[in-house]
Amino acid sequence: MKKLENYLNANSIAYSADDTERFELLYAVLAEKSKLFNLTAITERDDVILKHFIDSVSGVSYIKNNCLDIGAGAGFPSLPLAILKKDVDFLAVDGTQKKVDFLTYAAEKLCLKNYTVIHSRAEDMKDKRESFYTVVARAVAPLNILCEYALPFLQRGGRLVAYKGAKTAEEVDAAQNALTELGGVVIEVADAKIEGFGRKLVIIEKAKQTPQKYPRGGNKPRIKPL
Ligand code: SAM
What we know:
The protein contains nine helices and seven strands; from the N terminus they run H-H-H-E-H-E-H-E-E-H-E-H-H-E-E-H. By secondary structure, it is of the alpha/beta class.
C-alpha cells in the first residue's frame, strides 16, 4: 500500500493505520471474489492500488454529509471513500445483483458501519429524491445521461462528483442542455493529480430544483439523452 500512502500524504489526506489495514483487506476480498463474481478486469495488485484505490480516493475532499454511489460495481469509488470518511453515510446502488452481493460481502468483511447497499436501477429509487449532499459515479454513463440519474438525488446546493477521463471537455460540452434542464452547474473540473493516470473530476452543483419529470423511466435517459 506504499503507493496509496504516498498519494494520501502528498495530497494531505488524513488516514490511520486502521484504514491501511482495511485497504489490505479490500484488496484480499477483491482478489478472492473477483473471478467468481466477474467483478473487474483489473486484478494485478499494483493496478488495483492505482486504478481503483488511488483513483477512488482522489475525490475525497468533495465528500460531505452523506453520499450516494450510482453504479458502484465492485465498490468504486465508494468503498475506498467510505474507509477514509467514517463520518459520512454511504449508499451504494447497482442494477446488477452479483455486484450488490459482492458489495454487501465486502462491507461486512471490512466492518464498514457507514456503508449500505441497494439493488436497484438509479432511476427507480424515487424515495431517495433530494436526499444526498454528495453523489459520486465512475464509469457509469456519459455526463449528460449521468446528470439525469444523479441530480434528482441531490439536495439544493449538493454536489455530483463525476469521475471522468480523456473526453471530459467534450462530455461537459455535450451535457449543457441536460444541466440547464436538470438545474445543475459545473463549478469545477479538477485534475486528480495521479501520476500516469489522466483522471478528471467534474464537480456539478445542484443550483435549482430538478423538475419532477426527471429521471424519465423506461431507460429513456440512455435511449433519448437530454
Ligand atoms: N463504478 C464502478 C467502477 O468504476 O469500477 C463500476 C463501473 S461498471 C462499468 C458500471 C456499473 O454501473 C455496472 O455495475 C452497472 O450494473 C451499473 N449501472 C449502470 N447503469 C445503472 C443504473 N441506471 N442504475 C444502477 N446501476 C447502474
